[in-house]
C-alpha cells in the first residue's frame, strides 16, 4: 500500500554519528517483485530501525544524501563496508541463509536475481555510484529498452476488477451496500468505487470539508465481498466526488507507483462541485488509471459536459517517481477505467415516451436517443473508449426511498446518467448492471465486472533481458556524443488573447545515440521559460533514431495579463534545450498580445472611454501605471467613469436577463462563449453580449479575479478580517477605498441584493453569494499565505453584512 508524507509523523531522531549505518536488507516476508518497496535497516549506537521506503528515485536520493551527511566524509570514495564508517549498501544480493542481514557487495557485472526484484536499472555495488551524473541517463536507457522488450519477459494473467459508481444525492449511508458491492459469487481482485454528490452542503462546496467521507468509506469497507480480505490502497476526494481503491490483501505487494489527483471544472474552471478525481497505479507490470467524474448537469448542456471531459483529460497529471521524467496524463496508461455521473441525457423524446420504452424494456431503441452515444459516435468525447451494452433501465431520476420515477415539479426525464467506460487492451467486460435494491438516493448505483489481462513478470526471462541490455549498454557507452535535429527553432504566436490557449509544435529527431533532453534555466532565472509559456514535455528520453513531438503552449492568465497589457513585458523568450552529454540548442519564441480589460486595473478602465483594443499602446501603459486615486482629485483632464464600462455591461446584462436564472454563479458557462464575451468587451463591436447567462456570470467572476488590485485593496485586507462581524467598522473600511474601487464595491453589492430578492427562482442565498464574491473582492496580498478556512469564513462574513442591508438597485 502506498504511503504518503501525510501518513508519517516524526517520533524519534536517529543522529548520524560514528557507529551509524544504513543498509538495505531483504526480510523473509518480502516477495521478489518488480518495483517493490525497499527495506532499509538503520542503526546507531543505541537504536536500530527497519523502515520500508518506496522504490524509485526518491529512495535512491535519500540513501545518497545519507552518504553525504556523516561528519568527516569528503567524497563518496570514503564510504566503506564492514567498518564503523557509514554503510549504504545498495547491492541486491542475499546471503546463503536468506536472513535480513548485511550482505557483501557484488561486482558491477555480477547480476543476481535480487536485482530483478528491485527492477533497478543501474547495477551498483554501493551508493557512491548513484551520485555519478550518468546514472540518471543510464537508468532511463535501460528502463526504456526494458519497456520495448516487455513482451519477452511478461505473460498475461487475468485479474477481476469491480468498478462501481453511485451518486448518493448528499445522503448518508442508510442501508448495506452489499447488494451493489458483493453481488457476485466470486470476490474481485480489485475494487474501484466512486461516489458523486457525497455532500451537497455549502460547507463541502466552499471549504471542501465533510464528515460524510468517513461515513461512506466505512460503509464501503463493511460491504466488500465477505470471502476475501482487502487492503485499502488509496482514497481521494474533491468536494462530493470520492474514489476508493482496494485490492485483495495478497495482491498488495504487487501494487506500486500509486498517485492520486483532482481536477475541478466548476465555475471559473476550478470549483470542485464538478470535475474528476483519479488514482493511477501499477499492478504487476501494467499501468492502470481510474477516473471518477461528475460532469455538468442539465439536458441541453452536453457541450459543457464534453468540455469538462476534455479539461479533465488535459489537466489531470500524475507525478512520476523518477523526477527526470515528465508527468503522466490519463492517456499514458495501459488500462483506463472511467466511471461516474456523466450526466448525459436522453433527448428528442417526451418524458412519457421515454417511460413507455422503459416499461417495454426497449432499452436499445431508447439508447439511440442517448446523448453520450451520439457524442461518442461523432468522436466529440471519449474517443477510443468503449461502453458495454446497456441492458438495464435508466438510473436517474427516482423518488428517494423507492423505485418510482421523479414526481417533483420538474419531473425529470429518466436518463442513463451513471456510466462506466474503458480503454485499453486485454479488457473483457463480464457484467454491466444497475442495482435497484438501493433506494436512498435519486440515482441507482451501477457496477461493472471486468477480467483484465495484467502483465506479470517472469523473473528468469526478465533477468536475461536485463543482462542483455546492460551488456550492450556497456559497449555503447562513450562511443559518441548525442545529437538531434529540430524541425523548427523559431516560433511566432499571432494575436494572443486572454485565456485563449495557442499551441505550436516541433519535433526532436534523435541520432544514433540514446539521448536525454531537458529545457534548462537561463542564467539568473528560476525557470526555463516565462510564466505564460510551457513546453510539453519539458524533459524526456529518446532511443536511437526515434523522435518526440514537443508542444509549446502559450496561455495568458491573471498572473501575466497586467504586464502584457501595459507593455512592461512582451511575448518574447529564448528556450535552451539541453542534451545530457551533448550540446545546447536555442529556440526563439515571440508573439503579439491583444490587450484586454481582463487583467487591467479598475482605475485604468474607468479612464478608458474607448474599448481597450482601440487605445494606443502608449495610452494603455500610461493609464495602467497611474497611482491609485485615493480621493476625488483628478490626475488627468477628463473625469473618470464611475465604474468600468465593461463591468457595467456584464452586470446590466445579468440584471436584465438573469435575475431569476437557476444556479447563477454556480454553473459554468462555455469557453467558446467566454471568448465571444471577452472580445465584445475589448472591442465594443456589439451592443449586447453574446452567450448564455451562465457564461456572462462566469465572465464577471473571471473579470473580478483578474484585477491586479482587488476591489477591496490589498492594504485593507487585514482590516476587513478584523471587523468581519461589525458592520459600522466594515463600512468605515469601505469608505477608505479609492473612489473607483468604492463605486465598484457598492454597485456589486446593490446588484447582489437584487438577485437575492429572486431567491425563490434562482435558488441563491446570502451564504452562496458571500462565499463566491468574498474570495474575489477580498483577496490576501501576494506575499500572504494562502487563506485558511478561518480567513475564508471571515471574508464571507464581511461581504454577508452588506448583502443583508438594503440599498439602491444597480
Automatic annotation (TrEMBL):
Its main location: membrane. Residues 85-111 are annotated as: Disordered. Residues 628-810 form the Rho-GAP domain. GO terms for molecular function: inositol-1,4,5-trisphosphate 5-phosphatase activity; phosphatidylinositol-4,5-bisphosphate 5-phosphatase activity. GO terms for cellular component: cytosol; early endosome membrane; phagocytic vesicle membrane. Keywords: Cytoplasmic vesicle, Endosome, Hydrolase, Lipid metabolism, Membrane. Its EC number is 3.1.3.36. CDD domains: INPP5c_INPP5B, RhoGAP_OCRL1. The keyword GTP-binding does not apply. It is found in: Cytoplasmic vesicle, Phagosome membrane; Early endosome membrane. GO terms for biological process: phosphatidylinositol dephosphorylation; signal transduction. Residues 95-111 have a biased composition (Basic and acidic residues). InterPro entries: Endo/exonu/phosph_ase_sf, Ig-like_fold, INPP5B_PH_dom, IP5, IPPc, OCRL-1_2_ASH, OCRL1/INPP5B_INPP5c, Rho_GTPase_activation_prot. PANTHER family: INOSITOL 5-PHOSPHATASE, TYPE II INOSITOL 1,4,5-TRISPHOSPHATE 5-PHOSPHATASE. Belongs to the inositol 1,4,5-trisphosphate 5-phosphatase type II family. This is phosphoinositide 5-phosphatase. It comes from Chelydra serpentina (Snapping turtle). The lineage of its organism: Eukaryota, Metazoa, Chordata, Craniata, Vertebrata. The gene is INPP5B.
Amino acid at each position: 500500500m502506498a504511503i504518503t508524507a501525510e501518513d508519517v509523523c516524526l517520533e524519534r531522531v536517529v543522529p548520524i554519528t560514528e557507529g551509524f549505518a544504513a543498509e538495505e536488507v531483504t526480510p523473509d516476508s518480502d516477495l521478489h517483485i518488480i518495483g517493490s518497496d525497499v527495506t532499509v535497516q538503520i542503526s546507531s549506537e543505541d537504536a536500530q530501525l527497519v523502515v520500508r521506503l518506496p522504490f524509485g528515485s526518491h529512495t535512491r536520493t535519500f540513501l545518497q544524501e545519507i552518504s553525504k551527511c556523516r561528519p568527516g566524509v569528503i567524497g563518496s570514495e570514503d564510504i566503506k563496508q564492514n567498518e564503523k564508517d557509514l554503510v549504504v549498501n545498495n547491492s541486491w544480493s542475499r546471503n546463503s541463509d536468506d536472513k535480513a542481514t548485511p550482505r557483501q557487495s557484488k561486482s558491477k557485472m555480477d547480476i543476481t536475481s535480487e536485482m530483478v526484484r528491485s527492477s533497478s536499472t543501474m547495477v551498483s555495488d554501493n551508493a557512491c555510484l548513484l551520485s555519478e551524473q550518468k546514472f540518471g541517463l543510464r537508468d532511463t536507457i535501460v528502463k526504456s529498452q526494458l519497456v520495448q522488450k516487455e513482451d519477452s519477459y511478461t505473460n498475461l494473467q487475468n485479474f477481476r476488477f469491480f468498478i462501481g459508481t453511485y451518486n448518493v444525492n448528499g445522503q448518508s449511508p442508510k442501508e448495506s451496500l452489499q447488494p451493489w458491492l458483493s453481488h457476485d459469487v466470486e470476490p474481485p481482485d480489485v475494487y474501484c468505487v466512486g461516489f458523486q454528490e457525497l455532500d451537497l452542503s455549502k460547507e463541502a462546496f466552499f471549504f471542501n470539508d465533510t464528515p460524510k467521507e468517513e461515513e461512506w468509506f466505512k460503509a464501503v469497507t463493511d460491504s466488500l465481498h465477505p470471502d476475501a480480505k482487502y487492503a485499502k490502497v488509496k482514497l481521494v476526494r474533491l468536494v462530493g466526488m470520492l474514489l476508493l481503491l482496494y485490492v485483495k490483501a495478497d495482491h498488495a505487494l504487487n501494487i506500486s507507483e500509486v498517485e492520486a489527483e483532482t481536477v475541478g471544472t466548476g465555475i471559473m474552471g476550478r470549483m470542485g462541485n464538478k470535475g474528476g478525481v483519479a488514482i493511477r497505479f501499477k499492478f504487476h507490470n501494467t499501468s492502470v488509471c481510474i477516473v471518477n467524474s461528475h460532469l455538468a448537469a442539465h439536458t441541453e448542456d452536453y457541450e459543457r459536459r464534453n468540455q469538462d471531459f476534455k479539461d479533465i483529460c488535459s489537466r489531470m497529471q500524475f507525478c512520476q517517481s523518477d523526477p527526470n521524467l515528465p508527468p503522466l496524463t490519463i492517456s499514458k496508461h495501459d488500462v483506463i477505467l472511467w466511471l461516474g455521473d456523466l450526466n448525459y441525457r436522453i433527448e428528442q423524446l417526451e418524458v412519457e415516451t421515454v417511460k413507455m420504452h422503459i416499461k417495454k424494456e426497449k432499452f436499445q431503441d431508447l439508447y439511440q436517443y442517448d446523448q453520450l452515444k451520439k457524442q461518442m459516435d461523432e468522436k466529440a468525447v471519449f474517443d477510443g473508449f468503449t461502453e458495454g451494452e446497456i441492458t438495464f433501465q435508466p438510473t436517474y431520476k427516482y423518488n428517494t426511498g423507492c423505485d418510482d420515477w421523479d414526481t417533483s415539479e420538474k419531473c425529470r426525464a429518466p436518463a442513463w446518467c451513471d456510466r462506466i467506460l474503458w480503454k485499453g487492451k486485454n479488457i473483457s467486460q463480464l457484467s454491466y448492471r444497475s442495482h435497484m435494491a438501493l433506494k436512498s438516493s435519486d440515482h441507482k448505483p451501477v457496477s461493472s465486472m471486468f477480467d483484465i489481462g495484467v502483465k506479470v513478470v517472469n523473473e528468469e526471462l526478465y533477468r536475461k533481458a536485463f543482462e542483455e541490455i546492460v551488456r550492450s549498454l556497456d559497449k555503447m557507452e562513450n562511443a559518441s556524443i548525442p545529437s538531434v535535429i529540430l524541425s523548427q527553432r523559431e516560433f511566432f504566436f499571432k494575436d494572443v488573447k486572454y485565456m485563449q490557449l495557442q499551441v505550436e509544435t516541433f519535433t526532436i529527431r534523435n541520432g544514433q545515440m540514446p539521448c536525454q533532453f531537458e529545457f534548462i534555466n537561463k542564467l539568473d532565472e528560476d525557470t526555463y521559460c516565462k510564466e505564460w509559456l510551457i513546453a510539453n514535455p519539458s524533459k524526456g528520453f529518446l532511443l536511437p533514431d526515434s523522435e518526440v513531438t514537443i508542444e509549446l503552449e502559450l496561455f495568458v492568465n491573471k498572473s501575466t495579463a497586467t504586464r502584457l497589457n501595459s507593455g512592461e513585458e512582451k511575448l518574447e523568450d529564448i528556450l535552451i534545450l539541453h542534451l545530457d552529454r551533448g550540446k545546447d540548442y536555442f529556440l526563439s519564441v515571440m508573439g503579439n498580445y491583444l490587450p484586454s480589460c481582463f487583467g487591467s486595473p479598475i482605475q485604468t478602465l474607468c479612464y478608458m472611454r474607448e474599448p481597450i483594443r482601440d487605445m494606443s499602446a502608449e495610452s494603455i501603459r500610461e493609464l495602467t501605471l497611474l497611482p491609485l486615486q485615493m480621493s476625488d482629485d483628478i490626475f488627468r483632464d477628463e473625469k473618470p467613469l464611475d465604474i468600468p464600462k465593461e463591468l457595467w455591461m456584464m452586470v446590466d446584462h445579468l440584471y436584465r436577463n438573469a435575475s431569476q436564472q437557476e444556479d447563477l454563479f454556480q454553473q459554468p458557462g462555455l469557453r467558446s462563449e467566454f471568448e465571444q464575451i471577452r472580445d465584445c468587451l475589448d472591442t465594443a463591436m456589439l451592443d449586447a453580449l453574446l452567450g448564455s447567462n451562465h457564461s456572462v456570470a462566469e465572465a464577471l467572476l473571471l473579470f473580478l479575479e483578474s484585477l491586479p488590485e482587488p476591489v477591496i485593496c490589498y492594504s485593507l485586507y487585514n482590516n476587513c478580517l478584523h471587523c468581519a462581524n461589525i458592520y459600522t467598522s466594515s463600512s468605515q473600511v469601505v469608505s477608505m477605498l479609492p473612489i473607483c474601487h468604492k463605486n465598484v464595491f457598492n454597485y456589486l453589492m446593490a446588484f447582489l441584493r437584487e438577485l437575492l430578492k429572486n431567491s425563490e427562482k434562482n435558488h441563491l442565498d446570502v451564504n452562496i453569494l458571500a462565499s463566491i464574491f468574498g474570495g474575489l473582492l477580498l483577496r490576501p496580498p501576494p506575499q500572504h499565505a494562502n487563506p485558511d478556512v478561518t480567513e475564508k469564513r471571515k471574508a464571507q462574513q464581511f461581504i454577508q453584512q452588506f448583502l443583508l442591508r438594503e440599498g439602491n438597485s444597480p
